[in-house]
Amino acid sequence: MRIDLHTHSTASDGTDSPAALVRIARDAGLDVVALTDHDTTGGWAEAADALPADLTLVRGAEISCIDGDGISLHMLGYLFDDAEPEFARERELVRTDRVRRARAMVERCIELGAPITWERVREIAGDGAVGRPHVATALAEAGVVADVSDAFTPEWLKDGGRAFVGKYEITAVRAVRLIRAAGGVPVFAHPAASKRGRTVSDATIEELAEAGLAGLEVDHLDHDDETRARLRDLARGLGLVATGSSDYHGSRKIIGIGQFTTDPEVFAAIADQGRGVPLLRA
């Protein structure tokens, strides 16, 4: 069984539509795929309608959070009820603020000499939730950086970088509790991805575990072998599951769907905890 629990579509910052993504997942030999767009469930219905035979869809989202030290992080939520009012309200606040933030980052880039426009960034985002990857794509198109990943440096869009602008974020502990209250299963996405900026302490992860965290995303492109071993040991000590995922964004990033996967027993444990919405299979 091949299981990828972290992918993005055009509902946020991926380049494949939700319908195309599930077809790509099946063509790649996946048995299970999770659609986890940033702070939105807008791609769920399209992915479900297009679900090919023999593929199981896990409906989820990747929630923007912040810890007590001001460090940004992402929390994957699986199988939650997207209509639960408190969690839905918080996701709407995050999505609304994304537009203000992205526009402010574009303005900073222009002030720094980048020949990009807000109109082009909106075109790149299409119907998806506009975010940093869309600004990064505009920078790459304009020849300011070599590719999208090169935009995520202190020179441009990395946390704390010259063009970085903060956004409304839910505290990580609250995000865990909101996901649980909506019947979902929270897993900390790429918790040691130091290339993206500051990472949280083990003490923070322990606090999240006490709040109801279910797991850590261990096998991820942004973690080297030593980091994966450390995170796996930490998860084991805290009674958390250890997942693996591609964090697939289509052509916006180099990683292929299914490049990292989750053990079937771990997936079964996550599915068993989900109470908000069921797994979907065509």
Oligomer type: single chain
What structural class do you assign from the helix and strand content? alpha/beta
Number of helices: 9
Question: Number of DSSP strands?
Answer: 9
> Poorly predicted ranges (pLDDT <50, ≥5 residues)?
none
The helix content is 25-40%
Question: Which sequence of SSEs, written as H and E, runs from N to C?
Answer: EHEHEEHHHEHEHEHEHE
User: What is the average per-residue confidence, as pLDDT, rounded to a whole number?
Assistant: 96
The largest sheet, given as strand count, sense and whether it forms a barrel, is: 9 strands, mixed
How far is the first residue's CA from the last residue's CA? 17 Å
Radius of gyration: 18 Å
Summarize the structure.
This protein is an alpha/beta fold and 282 residues long.
Overall description:
By secondary structure, the chain is an alpha/beta fold. Helices cover 37% and strands 16% of the residues. It contains 9 helices and 9 strands. Strands 1, 2, 3, 4, 5, 6, 7, 8 and 9 form a 9-stranded mixed β-sheet that branches. Helix 2 (44-49) links the parallel strand 2 and strand 3. Helix 4 (118-125) crosses helix 5. It is globular and about 50 Å long. The protein starts with a strand and ends with a strand. The mean pLDDT is 96.
